[in-house]
């Protein structure tokens, strides 16, 4: 721990960030109790999982800030939780539509637009895919594989790190760090692509459920937890972030990333409480949707 070598401003910063983490945990616990009492059991666990993403990342970042040697393990914990939350968010969109069977009936003759980010946003020539049980299975598999394989790959990297074979700064083709990072990056893109395809289809239907603010919060967690950390790590390995004894450039970059994440996840936790606690209108029954469709077909 580096707390013993901190000056007064450093101690004040550490105390403030730790207090923000504790407040985020308390806000989440209060929100979880509210969800448990007010939300139907079919949606309860998924919404609690999604709301827990920001306080869990804030907690792991706070532990890594106080105990720098634990960074590999705190990142491992946050990585596992983040991978599960991506799958849970896809399942939440399906549940908010009434479940898989109801979703298939609502979009009986509909199509998924697969030319969306982050994988195929520029490939406008890609065909639209019919909404069937098989395509829904592939979308769920796209996020589920990330929830399974990312923890396995991070666990492998920790095993190699304890043996001295995994060095994050060594990105040569002969080292395992480059290949594991590239594989995790590819799995991440496929998972985010599946969520993007589903969101693009249901965003109008679920507008009454405030799915757009919920998706925006989810995107902020993705960008801040993945892209921001990657950029800071690149700056640190290239010595753009200068060393400050007793911290090397890499350790200081990790330090900065953790402190930023604590503040950002605190804000997201507070905003999530507001967004998820609103009372939403129920979706129109399928019978009404069918009648409207029939009226539109008879009008011409």
Automatic annotation (TrEMBL):
Membrane-topology annotation of the record: Multi-pass membrane protein
Compartments it resides in: Membrane
Tell whether Ubl conjugation is among the UniProt keywords. Answer: no
Q: Which residues cross the membrane?
A: 12-34, 46-67, 73-91, 137-161, 176-195
* Chief location: membrane
Q: Which Pfam families does the entry mention?
A: Solute_trans_a
| GO CC, one annotated term | membrane
Record's signal peptide: none
| Record's keyword terms, sorted | Membrane, Transmembrane, Transmembrane helix
Instruction: Respond yes or no to whether keyword Transmembrane helix is given for this record.
Output: yes
Give the protein name, as stated in the record. OSTA protein
Q: Which gene encodes it?
A: Slc51a_0
């Amino acid at each position: 721990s580096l707390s013993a070598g901190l000056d007064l401003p450093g101690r004040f910063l550490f105390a403030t960030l730790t207090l923000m983490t504790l407040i985020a945990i308390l806000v989440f616990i209060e929100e979880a109790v509210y969800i448990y009492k007010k939300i139907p059991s079919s949606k309860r666990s998924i919404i609690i999982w999604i709301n827990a993403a920001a306080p869990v990342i804030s907690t792991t970042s706070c532990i890594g800030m106080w105990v720098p040697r634990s960074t590999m393990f705190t990142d491992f914990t946050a990585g596992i939780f983040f991978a599960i939350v991506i799958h849970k968010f896809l399942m939440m969109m399906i549940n908010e539509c009434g479940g898989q069977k109801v979703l298939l009936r609502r979009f009986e003759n509909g199509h998924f637009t697969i030319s969306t980010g982050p994988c195929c946003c520029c490939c406008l020539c890609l065909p639209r895919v019919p909404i069937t049980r098989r395509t829904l299975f592939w979308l769920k598999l796209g996020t589920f594989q990330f929830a399974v394989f990312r923890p396995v790959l991070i666990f492998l990297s920790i095993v190699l790190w304890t043996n001295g074979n995994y060095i994050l700064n060594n990105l040569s083709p002969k080292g395992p760090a480059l290949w594991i990072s590239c594989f995790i990056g590819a799995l991440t893109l496929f998972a985010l692509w599946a969520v993007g395809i589903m969101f693009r289809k249901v965003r109008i239907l679920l507008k009454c459920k405030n799915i757009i603010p919920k998706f925006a919060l989810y995107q902020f967690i993705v960008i801040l937890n993945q892209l921001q950390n990657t950029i800071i790590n690149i700056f640190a390995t290239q010595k753009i972030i200068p060393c400050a004894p007793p911290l090397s450039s890499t350790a200081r970059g990790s330090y900065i990333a953790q402190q930023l994440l604590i503040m950002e996840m605190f804000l997201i936790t507070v905003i999530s409480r507001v967004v998820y606690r609103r009372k939403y209108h129920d979706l129109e029954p399928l019978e009404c949707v069918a009648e409207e469709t029939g009226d539109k077909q008879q009008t011409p």
